[in-house]
Write a structure and sequence with these properties.
- Helix content is 17%, strand content 21%.
- The chain is built from two helices and six strands; from the N terminus they run E-H-E-E-H-E-E-E.
- The chain has a four-stranded antiparallel β-sheet, with helices on one face.
- The longest helix is centred in the middle third of the chain and has 11 residues.
Length: 114
């Protein structure tokens, strides 16, 4: 199963992570809720540092829901983290599309610099 597949409520999004938080820290904090099958902390390709969020996948969706109920807004590595069920890509408040908006690169009519 790839990380992008729908996991039927087993995958959590953890936001607000300290940049020092590692997989072992997440396993220690969330392992008490049940069997963890995957932990992923995305790395910024430009800085080669963590991006400040991560994903944890549990073997059982009930364990994931319990972890959300117990860990949301709790302190982890000195930061209050946001813990929610992850949504499939393309859903929710992420960025959409590229570019800078506006006219899509087409020349503007009028109002240009003389």
């Amino acid at each position: 199963m790839s990380r992008d597949e729908d996991t039927d409520g087993k995958k959590l999004f953890i936001g607000g992570l300290s940049y020092d938080t590692c997989k072992e820290d997440l396993k220690a904090a969330f392992g008490r809720f049940g069997d963890i099958t995957d932990i992923h902390i995305p790395i910024d390709r430009d800085t080669d540092k963590p991006r400040g969020f991560g994903f944890i996948t549990f073997a059982d969706s009930r364990d994931a829901k319990e972890a959300v109920a117990e860990m949301h807004e709790k302190e982890l590595s000195g930061r209050h983290v946001s813990v929610n069920l992850a949504r499939p890509r393309g859903e929710g408040g992420g960025r959409s599309g590229g570019g800078y908006g506006g006219s899509g690169g087409a020349p503007r009519r009028g109002g240009g610099v003389p």
